Amino acid sequence: MASQEELFAAVDALLEGEPQLPPPEERKRLREAAGVTQARLAQVLQTTTQTVKNWDTGRSEPRPPRRQAYLRLLEGWAAKYPKTTPDASPASPPEPEPVPRTSTTNTPRRPVDVPQQTTPAPPAVSPPSAGARRVVSTKQASTPHRPAAKKVAQPALDQRFPHGPLGVLDGDGMVYCPGGVVLDCPATTITQLVEWTLQDSGIGAARLHRNGKDADPLVVLTASAAVKLGLPERLEGPEARRSLRLPEDHPVVRQIARAKWKLTQRGFGPWPRIYRPAKGSERQCVQLAILSWDALDARAWGEAADLPPAELARVLGEFAIRVITPRGSTAVCGLELMTALRPPTRAAKDASGAWVSAPNPGALTAVVDPAPPEAPAEHPVAQGWTDGFLDEEAYQWVRDVDLLSDEECLLPFAVGIDINTAFLAAAARLTVGLGSPVHVDRPSFDKKVPGSWYVDLSHVELDPRLPSPFTSTGERPSGPAWYQTNSVAYAQELGYEVTPVEAFLRYETGAYLDPWHDRLRAAYVATMGDLGVPVGGDVGERAFLEAMEQHKQTDPGLACVLSAIKSTVKGGIGKLRERPQGRHYRDGERWPALERPTWRPDIRAAVIAKARVNMHRKMLNVAKATGRYPLAVLSDCVVYPSPGPSPLDFLPLTEDGRILPGTFRLGASPGMAKLEGVQEMAWAVDLMEQGYNPARHIKGGDAVMDAGE
Asked: If we measure between CA atoms, which residue out of 684, 682, 425, 654 comes closest to residue 547?
């Protein structure tokens, strides 16, 4: 307990009052007059650059002991650099004053129905929505400058969501939104935060399809915000962190239940979703993401979780505008985007003229079980199945050293060509099955019918210096096996006869992934363009390679967005075959993922088979044109021996110096961009310095795995 002297000292300090800081514009003037950068001041006061920016603009105030040190510094500068004008510094115009705190009532916002509208980018200055507590500042947040590139056309503003799709909450109660908007959140509990978000924040996003639903508002919690709201700073336990959840008896979980809110089946983990049953067409749901619980996986988002709140809001806002408001891992986002662009139901009139819910043509509308060979071994339909399984996976192959020529061994470099978004390209104009499989004996092969075929492809003779296009290991098939339609069609394309023994076919078909491909491709191309990488048009290979070397340094925040877009592609495809998770699963049981229409391992197999065939076709064309063969292939990355460190040193060139069409193109010509929507980059390893081992030099190109949550 404090002594009487300590208490009296504290009371005396309270009577004297807190030392008053000069107005924000004066703080900025003094710092600039002294020639001190925000980063330097942050270093001296042992805080972050973003915090100093907030002090300069009045978004926040320093607290003891930094407050006293900051005030002493300002007083010293004021003595050295007195004002030359009574109102403002001559060096720069004053910043806008923050809006004072006011008490408001929670009046409802007028709904606006905007069909087929994407999430708007919040304007630099947004009027507060009706019922908003207050907008602390609408000044554009200070972020790294983007390159001089064409700006993406932004959709019209949805008046229901003036502050954008999401906000990042810090421990001071400030919610940073895209566009530089900063809101003051008075919530001190999770339930108060949910109610404030739905009633007062003006956060959300419009639906992506006229038959879909508006996106739930997302609030990202920093570590300090999580602790302030009663959550542990970290989730600890023996399981992987993404599988950890708060126990049901945790005070926050009980608080949610007492307030008549609910959690989804995945509980209160890194991405908790809190909701109440919808009122008519109005959803009552808020998505949270907890940064210190590893909500943003570094494998997908890079260093995004370490960014200051304002910059993180910009990064996540760009992803939300270009792709979708995050609702979980990038794998979850990939799957959610499929449903958002192809909703399973639509409004239709029945025979009596009443509006009812009806299946949406071209969408996955019902839960269907796979054929036994398409299912993972633990699936109930595969129990007792002994006739083999579909094994359509990405390449993981290294050429046998006995097949290397002396000339290849003497080449000093191994150059890897990584096909960016190869699986996204494979999804373009891909016909997939929409309904249940039908078993057929002795079918005639039809490349237009998606399905799984039991056929012997061991008679297909190819150069052993190339991997087999029919297996992920690159080994030649030894007998009959199950293959997806694209693999069998490629054998036919190579001139070989195919005679299936049996098949599981789907006759209700459609290009289900087309809108998904188009949106992700547009996001990828726009982000690459903003990073200074020329995409589309008549792009020169050398210009493309030079830009790729620097693109991550151009704007680190947008580099995180690019990484997340690529992970959304691979994770979304992998999520189509999500395996059972959690310690409560027992062999032979159904798991929750099986109960959604988008659990479709046959569609995943179709994408991977097409991507692998595309890769083999490129390698075969290079071999025909140059006689060069790869050393190794991992997923979407192929490694070649080369006399120099550039792919231009070994790839076939046309008379005008461009890389031969049909092989590995760098950049994208108009036809290439339309056909595949991908660009290929290259990296090189000096074999003379590193020692020769092709398997060790495979780099990048993650396989499409069975994605978890």
From this structure: 682
